[in-house]
């Protein structure tokens, strides 16, 4: 019996996204786990896909520019694309690369909130 990975919030993993449809990002790509670790019993994890940064992304609410550093172990400047938020089966997780800093995770969560037009309830 093989053990499945246990991806944690803030971690960046290589994930197999094959068998996608339309303009969904496919192939093996890095993605950042954005779910709470308290949801650990679920066999899926919400992630935001990472794609190579393009200057045209600058100024959009759903792209977060992330520079490579010793914590995230990225190979190049990427965008956390909040529009490409997905729940992924843990069987698709291939290899842990690194993790996001708390400040980058905060920016990614804010981008997700912008995509879904989340607003805190007013008292």
Explain what the structure shows.
It contains 1 helix and 6 strands; from the N terminus they run ββββββα. By secondary structure, the protein is mainly β. The protein has one domain: SH3 type barrels (Roll), CATH 2.30.30.110. Strands 4-5-3-2-1-6 form a 6-stranded antiparallel β-sheet. The protein is globular. The termini are far apart.
SS-based structural class? mainly beta
Note the overall shape: globular
Span from first to last CA? 51 Å
Radius of gyration of CA atoms, rounded to a whole number:
14 Å
CATH topology (fold) name: SH3 type barrels
Q: How many domain units?
A: 1
Largest sheet: 6 strands, antiparallel
Compressed to H and E, one letter per element, the order equals EEEEEEH
Write down the CATH class: Mainly Beta
Low-confidence stretches: none
Count the beta strands.
6
Overall CATH architecture: Roll
